[in-house]
Predict the structure.
Amino acid sequence: MTSSDPKKPCGRKHLKIGSLSITMTLTLAITTLVTLTGGTILVMVMGASHMATQDLIQRTVLTLSSRLESDLRQHMTPMEGHLRDLAQRIDSGEIDLGKQDQVKNRFSETIRSLKSLMGIAASLDGRSFYGLERTPDGTVQTRNFRRNDLGVTHSSMPSALTTSGAAWHEVVLQDGRALIARLQPVTRNGEPYGVLILAISVEELSRMVARIGDDIEGHGFILKGREQVLAHGLRQAAMMGRGLTVRRDTIGDPVLSNLWKNRTPRHIQKFNDKHPGLEVRHIVQNDEHYLAVMRQVPGYGPMPWTVGAWFPAEVLGSDSIMKVMFSGVAGLLVVILAIVAGVFLGRRIAQPIVDATEILSQVRNLDLDAVRPLPQSFFRELNDQANTFNAMLETLRAFGRYVPRTLVSTLMREQGSADSLSEARELAILFTDIGGFTSLSENMEPKEVAEFLNMHFSLLGGCVEAQDGTIDKYIGDALMAFWGAPIHQQDAAERACRAALAIADAWDSHNRDRNSQGLEPIRMRLGVHVGPVVVGNIGFAGRVNYTIVGDAVNACQRLESLGRDVESDSTAVILVSGAVQRQVAACDFSLKPMGSSEVKGRKRPLSVFQLRAQGEER
């Protein structure tokens, strides 16, 4: 009995739940291991880190150089593609250069889809041109051009009318703007027919390279030769009148001014020699070190452009080395500590963490009914975590009884709270309804009705969610959605209109499928309105909906019903109110006035406009 007495206290000892600190336990176990092995491992990691960092720098430089060329070509290539497409349509006879209305319509599509395009025109004789121009304030207008208005020289025109290949031409100065033009010869039945011309501004190129420079804490640029700057973040509207190019030493970029001043270090020169067409320069400016990455890009005029960017060397230098070293040391320590700590603490620590991971995954998916509470733990931090999680779980379950899952996700993402859900706001509202659905459903089995409605709401719901809208409810075959809550959206009206147009386009496609199956098309009506409503928790304590109420809801539903009397080439009629028209007036929408309509319960008539897709016949 005496020999067993020392063991009795251990056998009767009980830890209070949550009293043992996991931080202290791990610290005591780890300190000895770090002291004995940290020095040796650090030396090993430093060597590996140096090699890894050099490899990282080389791969990053190659990636940046590829991006420089890729961004430039992505900026220019769509314009080349649009020009080729227009030439093919002219050659096939789809477009007649002699008919200015056809030319204007096709060119309008091109200049609106290419925001960086300054002008596009066509000519039969190479002397007079007709086309569209984007003015400095951003508006698009038709005009008759002289050939040099779009950056075309007298000497370049004869070859453009006779050769079969398109080409970019030298930069020219026109009305204070430096322009770069691309000429595309056009044939008809295999014979020379005319020429297309497209122009972009150097200002747009400067904005493009400026974005690259901002991403790497430096400056992007395009050079012609070694001394002339074609495009730069500093060369925008304020410098456009200074000429076709700006000297490198006058652009106002001290790092770029010293681009060729310093000798290239040996290891950088070896790197350059291994990658023809790519050049890396080391620049010292005011005792600060910088790297410049440049690549020659041919195909944009007689002289190849050099597209490049400079950035502080520390971005890839000591900072990267320290990060790699820290990661290496931390990684090795984690491996060693995992082995040793696993022997002593694995069973106590691992299982609660595994349980928490599985449960948190269910919470992330809002599968709250399947979530079980976290168990209590002997470790204080894990015990606090379990208590906090269990309290949160009860709150989410209570909240989930009356708020849709998508709304909960939004509120969680935006850190919304349940006590701030009811308020007055101005929202954009959308109503949809299927014309003649009652008659249609009479000839369908219940299963067919359900399948049709599921398809229908899947189509509508995707369009609404693509514009970040909130689906309020389904009313039979009708849908009600709104924008501007729970998250404030300054462009709520624009989003609602784009969702309505997307629904109309998808519905037209659905009806084309019905036609191919020998079925009659089904018409749909949509109404969009903007107005003040009360948005929030509506209902009673046992069942609450997150919804909207107010006169604007009734007005929107009235708009939708007015679509019964509107004819349209589309199988979906969209009517919007004057309030919507005023908010989207600056947007690229086609709105046809439809007069005013009296709305029951409103003193003033409602102005009505028909929203149509661009290009829909008037």
Observations:
- The chain is about 45% helix and 25% strand.
